[in-house]
Design brief:
327 residues, 15 helices, 59% helix, elongated, binds heme C
Length: 327
């Protein structure tokens, strides 16, 4: 009968990874996605990095050299799978963050459509993690029964009935610090650089309503709008040179250019023959705001609810009134 012993750093790693992975899973949905989710995911990566380091300089029973000796084959495969899942989730997570939100280390390197595509892989890996956890828990229960020993408790107090080697906590702390160092660089949340816009866009389009970011309508819509004399009953009176400048810029950054997550979603849901002139009647816009109590508030006043609308940012978290009150 094998007698397991887990040193303290390894036990802290185990429960830290369990807690951060579960919490990351719970904060992963569209709305709560954000700082908490990214921080928890980063923490999990740091813990995995620690585990690799600890496998080199840690207690003898935690070393990679002893890995197949202290684990049964299924247990060894299971542990490696868990580490691989976390790394896969971290890698895809960075790509999603960069592609969809324009944030994090991959901002500017990954296109919005790519970010959206990788998002399904990220989600699939997260559910694979749930499946893994179910198998893991079943395995622990089965093994506890076979060994007549509570392995969960052993993972808490470590040295059940065994006098293991002295726990070299100081080494553990040192490895943890080294593993955490890169995270300090990765963590700061770099906001996406706002799209540079012509001065004339703010001047000519920002008087009566928000100077809408151009990625909210397809290029052909801007083309038609800026060529028209009648702007929702108003006369824009643009001089031809300005009209040309604005049209060239807006059409280059229209929804069909797919530069942001919502641009990709808008382009995908607008009828190819349609020439929408309103953002607020796009199926995409109505879908997102279906559950938002709009009341009598003019829908075009995006900035009333989206504090960063001027910069082209419509973060759902910032838009929620209950969240707004908190900040
Ligand atoms: C003189 C005032 C005025 C100016 C200047 C103006 N607009 Fe408008 N715009 C309006 C009005 C009025 C509406 C209709 C608003 C409503 O129904 O709530 C509108 C609506 C819009 C809409 C549709 C909003 C929606 O989703 O319902 C877009 C897009 C738009 N304007 C773009 C522009 C652009 C681009 C410019 C600059 C070239 C511009 N506007 C300049 C008055 C103006
Ligand atoms: C009365 C408040 C209100 C107004 C006005 C409003 N929104 Fe929103 N918007 C919200 C809320 C609340 C959400 C979050 C919905 C949810 O929970 O998914 C949201 C979500 C969004 C999202 C999705 C954000 C994300 O992170 O997924 C976009 C994009 C957006 N709005 C764009 C606009 C634009 C463009 C306008 C103006 C034409 C506008 N909104 C006007 C309240 C508003």
């Amino acid at each position: 009968m094998s007698t397991r012993t887990w040193d303290l750093p390894l036990r802290l790693f185990h429960w830290g990874l369990a807690a951060s992975a579960v919490a990351a899973f719970l904060t992963g949905d569209e709305l709560t996605r954000g700082r908490a989710h990214v921080v928890l995911g980063t923490l999990a990566v740091g813990l995995v990095a620690f585990r690799f380091g600890w496998g080199v300089v840690g207690e003898p029973t935690s070393r990679w050299r002893a890995f197949t000796r202290v684990h049964t084959l299924p247990a060894a495969l299971s542990a490696v799978t868990a580490l691989a899942l976390v790394l896969g989730l971290a890698l895809t997570g960075v790509l999603v963050l960069g592609g969809e939100e324009g944030r994090g280390p991959a901002a500017g390197l990954v296109s919005a459509p790519m970010g959206i595509a990788v998002h399904s892989v990220h989600r699939a890996l997260a559910w694979a993690g749930v499946a893994w956890l179910a198998v893991h828990l079943a395995g622990v229960a089965k093994q506890s029964w076979a060994e007549r020993r509570n392995l969960v408790r052993a993972m808490v107090d470590g040295r059940k009935g065994v006098t293991g080697p002295a726990v070299r906590l100081r080494t553990g702390v040192a490895v943890a610090l080294v593993a955490a160092a890169p995270l300090v660089v990765a963590l700061p949340d770099r906001a996406p650089a706002p799209l540079q816009r012509p001065v004339a866009w703010d001047r000519e389009c920002g008087d009566c309503h928000l100077a809408f970011p151009p990625d909210l309508l397809p290029a052909r819509s801007w083309d038609a709008m800026l060529a028209s004399e009648d702007h929702f009953g108003e006369f824009l009176g643009l001089d031809p040179a300005t009209a040309d400048e604005l049209r060239a810029w807006a059409t280059a950054h229209g929804a069909d250019a797919g530069e942001t997550e919502h641009a990709v979603r808008i382009a995908a849901t607008v009828d190819a023959n349609a020439l929408p002139q309103r953002i607020t009647t796009l199926p995409w816009w109505e879908g997102i705001h279906a559950a938002v109590p709009l009341g009598d508030e003019p829908r075009t006043r995006c900035a009333d609810c989206h504090p960063d609308a001027e910069r082209g940012s419509f973060d759902a978290r910032a838009a929620h009134p209950e969240d707004r009150r908190e900040t």
